[in-house]
């Protein structure tokens, strides 16, 4: 199984390497105020992919932190509820008859 995984990795590497070699043309990125960069197409694709992956990881990480805080809060609430005396009866209201004139 390890050999198959290494073969797949090498195949993927060579496919991506071939893609990079075939797409070595320059791309012009034009910015505001006349700014312009000349970069290889592969570099532009790599930067775009990396930025998207970073954005996705950041969004997932924020959600993960929010869930961990909620789990921590719920565990503390459960611990407090388990420590509370269970044999004490809750207070009951005594009904009083309304006074008549």
Radius of gyration, in Å, reads: 32 Å
Number of strands: 2
Output the structural class. Answer: mainly alpha
Please report which band the strand proportion falls in: under 5%, 5-15%, 15-25%, 25-35%, 35-45% or over 45%.
Answer: 5-15%
Percent helix: 55-70%
Number of helices: 2
The biggest sheet, with number of strands, parallel, antiparallel or mixed sense and barrel status, is: 2 strands, antiparallel
For the terminal residues, how far apart are their CA atoms? 93 Å
Strand order of the largest sheet: 1-2
- Helix/strand order: HEEH
Uncertain runs are: none
Describe the structure.
The protein is built from 2 helices and 2 strands. The mean pLDDT is 85. The chain has helices at residues 2-22, 41-83, and strands at 26-30, 36-40. It has a two-stranded antiparallel sheet. β1 (26-30) and β2 form a beta hairpin. It is mainly α.
List keywords for this structure.
10% strand; 101 residues; mainly alpha; single chain; elongated
In short:
Helix content is 63%, strand content 10%.
List the helices and strands and how they pair.
Elements: H1 2-22, E1 26-30, E2 36-40, H2 41-83
Antiparallel strand pairs: 1-2
